[in-house]
Design brief:
By secondary structure, this protein is of the alpha/beta class. Helices cover 34% and strands 25% of the residues. It has a single domain (14-256), classed as P-loop containing nucleotide triphosphate hydrolases (Rossmann fold). The structure holds adenosine-5'-triphosphate (ATP).
């Protein structure tokens, strides 16, 4: 198993170290240690309720918005503990964007959806820069050609797949380094799923991507590294190929071969 340490010249982008999370008195994440490398896709798999989403949400502290959530340990991003006292949580969430199961565009125009983060984060209100950023972000998610003539139409008129692309474009506009995706294809059909998978593969050249998925074929197709979780524990973390073909732990083998879950 590859835990922290032994990365040669590489510093991990995300270093999760002895991390625990409690929902009130329920110990949902138990002593998690993972190093996530830069500009790769890391998948989190495991049966329902094992803590995948909780761990993903811990990486940009979205769990903080809930009451009675307690954590211990560290999550270091580029060497800085995001649970440290000095952390600006708004800046963290700009740097670590999140895409959810169901696309959640705002009920405003496509253009305004992408420009939204620039305004609320007071990054710029210069129209030329906003225009350029909207175009660049929509091109990055391969949506531009389809919608460039209807930028001022409601985002809610887009297909679900296009809406999910738009949600990713909305993140890209504010220049994150890390993109977290929580089952981003679960509301999409197989064709749309394949397109979003292709997009993730393209985006990994520029972003560090962590994706929670129930779909093991998806994890095997798109990720470089896979974390397998069970009942709040990290059972195994390794290269995806190893997890799926020659896992070190029996539980991992049982899960990936469909014997439970
Ligand atoms: N807000 C919450 N309050 C209390 N318990 C929670 C909360 N959110 C999740 N849990 C519990 O924490 C555990 C882990 O949940 P989590 O959603 O992280 O698992 P998951 O592996 O992502 O599951 P799924 O695949 O079904 O989405 C579960 O037992 C769940 O019931």
């Amino acid at each position: 198993m590859r835990l922290y340490g032994d990365f040669g010249q590489h510093m991990p982008k995300i270093e999760i170290k002895k991390f625990n999370l409690y929902y009130a008195d329920f110990h949902a994440l138990q002593n998690i240690n993972i190093n996530i490398e830069e500009k790769r896709i890391t998948a989190m798999i495991g049966p329902s309720g094992c803590g995948k989403s909780t761990l993903l949400r811990s990486i940009n502290r979205i769990n903080d918005t809930l009451e009675k959530v307690y954590t211990s340990g560290e999550i270091n991003i580029s060497g800085e503990n995001i649970y440290g006292r000095e952390i600006d949580v708004d800046a963290l969430r700009r740097n670590v964007g999140m895409v959810f199961q169901r696309p959640n565009p705002f009920p405003i125009s496509i253009y305004e959806n992408v420009a939204f983060g620039l305004k609320v984060n007071r990054i710029t209100s210069n129209k030329n820069i906003v225009d350029e950023t909207v175009e660049r972000s929509l091109k990055a998610v391969l949506l531009w050609n389809d919608i460039k003539d209807k930028l001022h139409k409601s985002a809610l008129n887009l297909t679900l797949e296009q809406q999910q692309r738009l949600c990713i474009a909305r993140l890209i506009a504010i220049a994150p380094h890390i993109i977290l995706l929580d089952e981003p294809c679960s509301s999409l059909d197989p064709v749309a799923t394949q397109k979003i998978e292709e997009l993730m593969i393209q985006l990994k050249d520029r972003y560090t991507i962590v994706v929670v998925t129930h779909n093991m074929q998806q994890a095997a197709r798109i990720s470089h590294d896979t974390a397998f979780m069970l009942l709040g524990e990290l059972i195994e973390f390794d290269k995806t190929e190893k997890i799926f073909t020659n896992p070190s732990r029996k539980e991992t083998g049982d899960y990936v071969s469909g014997r439970f879950g």
